[in-house]
Amino acid sequence: MRQAKILLRNEEAGILTQHDDGSFTFRYHDTWADSNKPSISLTFPKTHREFNGDYLFPFFYNMLPEGSNKQVVCKHHRIDADDYFGLLMVTAATDSIGAVRVIKSEMP
User: Fold this and answer.
1) Is the pTM of this model over 0.90?
2) Is 70 exceeded by the pLDDT of residue 107?
3) Total number of domains in the chain
4) Which domain holds residue 74?
C-alpha cells in the first residue's frame, strides 16, 4: 500500500491511497470536509468523504506527463511506465498545473 498527501493551495485536503490489489481510495480529511474550503475537483464533491476506484481516478491521471516527457521522467527516476501512482508522486509534487499537488506520504 502506498499513500500520497493531496494538497490544495499548499493545504492538506486529503489522502490518496493505492492498495495492494491496485485499487485506489481518495479520502478528504474530516477537518477539510467539515469546513468551508472548496473540493479539490468537481469529480470529488465534499458531500462524500471517500471515493473508491479500481483505477487511478481520471482527475489524477490527467496530471501525468505524456509522450516524450513521460519517457524522460520514467527513465530519470527509474519508474515503470505503467506505475501511474509512482509517476504522479514524482511529477505532481512540484510540477503541476493548477492548485493541486501530490506529495509522497510515509505510512503510519
Assistant:
1) no
2) no
3) 1
4) 2-105
